[in-house]
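Hello K.,

You asked for the raw outputs rather than the summary table, so here they are, unedited. I folded two proteins back to back in the same session to keep the settings identical. This is the first:
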Amino acid sequence: VTSGFNQIVNNLAKMHYRWGQNADVVVRMPTGAGVGAGPFHSQSNEAWFFHTPGLKVVYPSTPADAKGLLISAFDDPNPVMFFEHKVLYRSIEGEVPEGYYHVPIGKARVVAEGSDVTVVTYGAPVIWMQELIRSGAFSGEVELIDLRSLMPWDKETVMQSVRKTGKVLVLTEDSLTGSIASEIAAEIGETCFKNLDAPVARLGALDTPIPFAMSLEENFLPKKKLISAVENLLSF
């Protein structure tokens, strides 16, 4: 079933490029851990679709961005995978403008400005980082970037921030190997090498299936390692 779905999405992703025909398809994908749903229903699988040319992938972290990105996805001639984190359904609130508005696909959001280190992420980890920044958990100023759109992703905003701070952590809830975070880290290393004051750091989940037990799931996720990962960069 999964193989057949991937093939359908792959074919749809080429329609506008090949024949100039719209593929007005938006696939909404509940995703993410934090609810003890185990190895199938808690998995992050956005990286499966990131590699498909012609397919756009978005992943909002706020109610306002969810509405604006969904409208942009409806209006896009290419198929869009719209990832929605299950925990965020239940745990966050926010003001949502009335009426019809767009959040541009491919444009990141600077959530918090800082001068010492950049953290690039998306989805639930945006909320994790916001909470830590507000609590004063870090010894330096953290600039937090919410990608919002994973394909295409906003290279300009990310590189501008990295050139300013000289240090960067790319954070994902997904397992680290073969992740979107790894691709972004590679791009930063190639583009901003001369601006870096520390190696590009990555942080993600373990390369294992997700356990059912909540205590084991917490160990699987990278959340508890965030402070040490950022502090290691700040002190480098």
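The second followed immediately with the same parameters:
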Amino acid sequence: MRLSVVVPCFNEEGNIGRVVEQAAQVGRRHNSDLEIVVVDDGSTDDTASVLRSLKAENPELRVVEHPRNRGYGAAVRSGLDRASMDYVFLTDGDGQFDLQELPSAMRLLSEHDVVAGYRENRQDGWWRSLWGRIWTALVNRALGLHVRDANCAFKLLPQSLLRSSDLRSEGAFISAELLLEARRFELSIAECAVSHYPRRAGRQTGASLRVIVKAFRELAECLPRRWRTRAETVRRAPQ
């Protein structure tokens, strides 16, 4: 498999090195061609310096720099735009996933188009766990999805989907938007359980009030697309 690993990050100087090195180790072992695309979304710590050092040891590494913080969705989209391989693995730069589990997810692509991970035992506090359950239930209801963990940053996607998709999210809604696009193109989605580990360094920002409000706004803006998708599906159905 020719694989792009896309890693958005913001102020992850204490984590991004471990993520890149693990992605390189796993990717070299299991893929015929590999690139690692890290998007530094306007970090104000030493993330940029760490990435410069990593490039000397990891020729697969490509770094995209945002001059200012634009948001999680914008960082994901920048990484996806830069990705050039046949499949894209999307994960986060916080080091809370074990990329040694990636080969098991890749095997599911023999029978499915997309693989979406779900965290069996979240390790980021009761508030984020509660918010994650509420958000997943909401987007499943609103968008007609049937997934266990809409925001899990452990996803394998075909390049063909990304080139055909109309992604617009600038914030946390991007994960659900990717699944909605997969559904729009009638792709099969396999789910796989993935381990989740406590953050070793840095600070979480994913469940701040600002991020939550932005996610709700982007969900509301996306609903007309969901209705158009439903109408197109009905028109294609045999009469």
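The two ends are 39 Å apart (CA to CA).

Happy to rerun anything if the numbers look odd on your end.

Regards,
P.
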